[in-house]
């Protein structure tokens, strides 16, 4: 598309505002470009469509809110990639979420140290543990991060080399010979702390999808606590549940009472 053709597609006399028209053009461009393609910069759009920077920002913001585009700090605006779905119906290495969409990330180990921080050890029944922080990166872009804590009786049997080479479940099962039984998982939406925001390339306070997991062995001993922080535009969590017992539910919602209306010049109130 030439610059003249682009300008002709925006009409100042149209009933649609300029930023709405520009958003329509960017939708078409995104559809033609494909997932994870970098969009033109704000200044390139200003020059091409002969509109103000405010108009460009409003158009992009609308498409970000729709989930069609994503902003990456320091990198630009991109067509939203296909979300990776992480099933929650069974225990599985988190890294398997990437292979399901044909991606194979680098798992960069940023921390490998002992801790006695109660918040890191919560749910592990231990006074000390091995703390591991891993950042998942694909083609130079951060995708997710995880803080893993292992109770001391487990952590003392693990080397950094093992963690740098394999996912934690593989180390626990194949290297240590543990038999995993089940896991307790909690989901939440949280604001990115400054250290998380810096690693994931978002602004502090940006919403993150948080998955907390405590894994137990076959003797019901907690052997791992993991706290994943995921970019919500890249990931979704999937769970299939049965309907057993739903037919037994019985509930009645409370109805609001009548609204009292005061009549002008009168002390009487009547329901409406």
Mean pLDDT: 84
Give the beta-strand count.
12
- Oligomeric state, counting identical vs distinct chains: single chain
Coarse structural class: alpha+beta
Order of helices and strands: HHHHEEEHEHEEHHHEHEEEEE
- Could you please say which CATH topology of the largest domain applies here? Chorismate lyase
The stretches of 5 or more residues where confidence is low (pLDDT under 50) are: 1-8
Largest sheet: 6 strands, antiparallel
User: Can you identify the CATH class of the largest domain?
Assistant: Alpha Beta
Fraction of helical residues: 25-40%
Spatial extent as radius of gyration: 26 Å
What is the number of helical segments per DSSP (H or I, 4+ residues)? 10
**What is the CATH superfamily of the largest domain?**
Chorismate lyase-like
How would you characterize this protein structure?
GO terms for molecular function: DNA binding; DNA-binding transcription factor activity. InterPro entries: Bact_HTH_transcr_reg, Chorismate_lyase_/UTRA_dom_sf, Tscrpt_reg_HTH_GntR, UTRA, WH-like_DNA-bd_sf, WH_DNA-bd_sf. The chain is α+β, with helices and mostly antiparallel strands. The chain folds into 2 domains: 3-79, Arc Repressor Mutant, subunit A; 84-239, Chorismate lyase (3-Layer(aba) Sandwich). 28% of the residues lie in helices and 31% in strands. The protein is built from 10 helices and 12 strands. The chain has helices at residues 3-8, 18-33, 42-49, 53-66, 96-99, 118-121, 152-155, 160-165, 168-175, 194-200; strands at 69-72, 76-79, 84-87, 106-115, 129-138, 141-151, 180-191, 207-217, 222-230, 235-238, 260-262, 269-271. The protein has a 6-stranded antiparallel beta sheet with strand order 4-5-6-9-8-7. It has a two-stranded antiparallel ribbon with strand order 1-2. A hairpin with a 6-residue loop joins strand 11 (260-262) and strand 12 (269-271). Helix 2 crosses helix 4. The longest helix has 16 residues, at 18-33. Mean pLDDT is 84; it is low at 1-8.
């Amino acid at each position: 598309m030439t610059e003249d053709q682009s300008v002709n597609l925006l009409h100042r006399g149209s009933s649609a505002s300029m930023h709405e028209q520009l958003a329509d053009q960017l939708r078409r461009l995104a559809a033609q470009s494909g997932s994870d393609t970098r969009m033109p910069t704000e200044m390139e759009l200003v020059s091409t469509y002969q509109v103000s920077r405010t108009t460009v920002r409003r158009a992009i913001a609308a498409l970000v809110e729709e989930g069609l585009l994503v902003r990456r700090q320091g990198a630009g605006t991109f067509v939203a990639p296909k979300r990776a779905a992480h099933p929650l119906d069974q225990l599985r290495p988190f890294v398997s979420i990437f292979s399901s969409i044909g991606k194979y990330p680098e798992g960069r180990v940023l921390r490998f140290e002992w801790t006695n921080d109660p918040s890191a050890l919560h749910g592990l029944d231990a006074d000390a543990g091995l703390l591991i922080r891993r950042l998942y990166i694909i083609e130079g872009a951060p995708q997710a991060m995880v803080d893993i804590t292992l109770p001391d009786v487990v952590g003392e049997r693990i080397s950094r080399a093992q963690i740098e080479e394999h996912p934690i479940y593989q180390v626990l099962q194949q290297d240590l010979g543990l038999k995993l039984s089940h896991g307790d998982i909690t989901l939440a939406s949280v604001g990115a702390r400054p250290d998380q925001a810096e690693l994931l390339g978002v602004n502090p306070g940006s919403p993150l999808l948080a998955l907390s997991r405590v894994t137990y062995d076959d003797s019901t001993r907690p052997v791992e606590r993991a706290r994943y922080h995921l970019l919500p535009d890249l990931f979704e969590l999937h769970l299939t549940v049965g309907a057993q017992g739903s037919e037994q539910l019985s509930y009645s919602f409370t109805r609001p009472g009548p609204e009292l209306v005061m009549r002008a010049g009168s002390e009487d109130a009547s329901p409406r």
